[in-house]
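During the reporting period the student researcher (J.K.) took over the structure-prediction task from the postdoctoral fellow and processed the backlog of single-chain submissions. One of the processed entries is reproduced below for the supervisory committee.
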Amino acid sequence: MATVFRQAKRIRILSYNIRHGEGMDGQIDLARIARVIQSAAPDVVALQEIDRRIRRTGYADQAAELARLTGMQVAFGRAMRFEGEGQYGNAILSRWPIVHTETHSLPGALESRGVLRAQIELPTGHNGPQSLSLLVTHLALDEESRLQSVHDIASIVSGSATPALFAGDFNAKPDSAVVEALCGTWRSTTRGQDLVTFTPTPSQIDYILYRPQTRWHVASTEVIDERIASDHCPILAVLDLLAPTQNQDTDRQR
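J.K. obtained the following C-alpha cells:
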C-alpha cells in the first residue's frame, strides 16, 4: 500500500558553477553572480569553483562575500589548495541555519576534488523540527575518478534516513555511466529533460538529485538562461519535502 503524506515543505534549490566569478566577458564580478542567485529566490544554493584567498581573484573569500551580498548563511568546503596560497572548492548558501558541515576528499587524476555536506535545520512545522542533508560537489574530469567518487558519495549517505539533496557539476552527460551509477542511490530532478547547463559545448553536466524517492515530489526544474556571468547556467529545482505518516515501511532509501 502506498505511503500517504500529510504535509510538505517546499524547497527551492539552485546549483551554480560560478567559475570563480569570471564571466564570459572576462570580468570577475561577484555582485553579478549574487544578482543571478537572488533572481531565483532560492532557499539553498550549491556553488562550485569557489576561490578563497587566491591571487587571481584578489585574495577575496568568495563564499563569505556571496553570503554577504545575498544575506544567506554560508559553508565552504575545500577541494584543493591553489597556487600554494589559497583554497578552491565548493560552498553552500542557505537562508536556514547550517548546523553541521563536513568535507570529504574525492579522487581526481588532474586535481583533487571534494564533496561538502551540510546539515540544514528547516523551519519547525506541525511535525516538529526537520533536517535536510545537502551535498555539493564538482566531479573530476576523468571518468575513472568520477565513477570512484560515485561509490565514495554513496558510502557517505549510506544508512542515513535524513532526506537529502545532492547538487553540482558532475562533468557527465545524462546518458553517461556516471549519471547511471548515481541513479542507483539518487533520483534526478531533470530525468527525461533535454537541458543545457554548460554553454561552451552545449550540454547538461550540472544536476540536482534527491533521496529517498518517497520523501520528495519534484514540482519543477529549469535552467536559468544566464550566459554571461559564468560558463555554466544555474539550474533551479523546486521540490516538496513530504512528511510521512507513522507507517514508513515503504519509505526506503533509493
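The committee noted the following: The mean pLDDT is 92.
J.K. will present the remaining backlog at the next meeting.
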